[in-house]
What does this fold into?
Amino acid sequence: MMYDYLIVGAGLYGAVFAHEMKARGKKVLVIDRRAHIAGNVYTEKIEGIHVHQYGAHIFHTNNKKVWNYITRFAEFNRFTNSPVANYKGKLYSLPFNMYTFNQMWGVVTPEEASAEIERQRREITGEPKNLEEQAISLVGRDIYEKLIKGYTEKQWGRDCRELPAFIIRRLPVRLTFDNNYFNALYQGIPVGGYTKMVANLLEGIEPCIGVTTTAIKDTLNDSQPIPVTIEKILNEVARTYNVMPSDIRGKKRNANVSAARQMTMYIIREVTGMSMEAIGQEFQRDHSTVVYSIKTMEENIKRDQHLKEMCSDIMKNVRT
It folds into this structure.
């Protein structure tokens, strides 16, 4: 069968595009290397609970047109993300807002909160040299010590004074009693899960899932190189570092796995040209983590000839 569009990826972008093209009378073929549709928002019903297999996703937008569009394919609940931080048995509201400042210092007005933050910020003079100084310069030492330091050091596996300041460019501070994590007019989670919503978008379209590069290589001209996939890079790096691919994607933070993860992100960026935001989505890491990992690898490669040769070998192997 001939198609007007080959759509690679059955996530939100691919599903929306496929739906719109089908509505315009086009023939579309949707393929995905994963064994399911919905990409990173894939949900699976387990014991009556819709589990977000790649981390929690909360749909939110201020665009009424977007909201009216997506609610054609799913009913949304009224979920409001209001996280709390547990510091030594005491709970603090996030993001930082007047509830947080009241719990921290007993202040009740925005003026009192602003004055206390400003007083503590004066501890840092000049340009912040590391993440600790950057955080204190933004929100003061109390909030840094109780709500930033421990979490950040656990995330990165390093002392905050060893981390660069650019990781925390800004920290949102709200001088209102508002625990809503998002400043979005419309937000929620699809009733029935994201997978059902994406299936509704793909109604009348049979996606081909679990598709590998080898399954479509016959459609490529002989002169075209076989595309380098993320999985191929991941497997090659895992083999080189003697770790499991799942470890690189996972939460482990020992030195060898962390080094393999940084190498993987760096090579994906170099070989595929994928954006740092997209790499972050692939590995369920935020943008600053990807930026730090790639910059760290770039600096290490400049200093370490052995690492440079290892990186070159990995790139060569994934391209063949």
Notes: Strands lie at 5-8, 28-32, 43-46, 49-52, 59-61, 84-87, 90-93, 186-188, 208-209. The chain has a mean pLDDT of 90. The first strand starts at residue 5 and ends at 8. The radius of gyration is 23 Å.
